[in-house]
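In response to reviewer comment 3 from the previous cycle, which asked for concrete evidence that the modeling workflow produces usable outputs, we include below a single protein chain processed end to end. The sequence was submitted unchanged, and the resulting structure tokens are shown without manual editing.
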Amino acid sequence: MISTSSPVALLGWLIAGVGIAGVVPQLFAYSAEVGEESHAGRNMAKVVGIAYAGILSGPAIIGFLTIVVPLNIALGLGVVLGLFTALGTLLIERRNLSAKAL
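The workflow returned the following structure tokens.
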């Protein structure tokens, strides 16, 4: 989408992969700490299951989208959805903090 050079694009994917490899295990560990202590395993299983479903379905969904839109837009949709998820997480945290204050 941004790069027209394959080596630069591969370097970008390398940097993204290293970042994801460092963050995902921390997210899995954090998911066990959310909520009641007796539900730690259940909460972690939910997050791991959602991540696994995304890993399996992501390429298929992107491939299907390329029938309708160009590949760079289909890949960019993943970025937009990631930003949407991050924004939603911030809003949920604010709502939880305000609910605790009441």
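Helices lie at 6-33, 40-65, 71-101. We consider this sufficient to address the reviewer's concern, and the full set will be provided in the supplementary archive.
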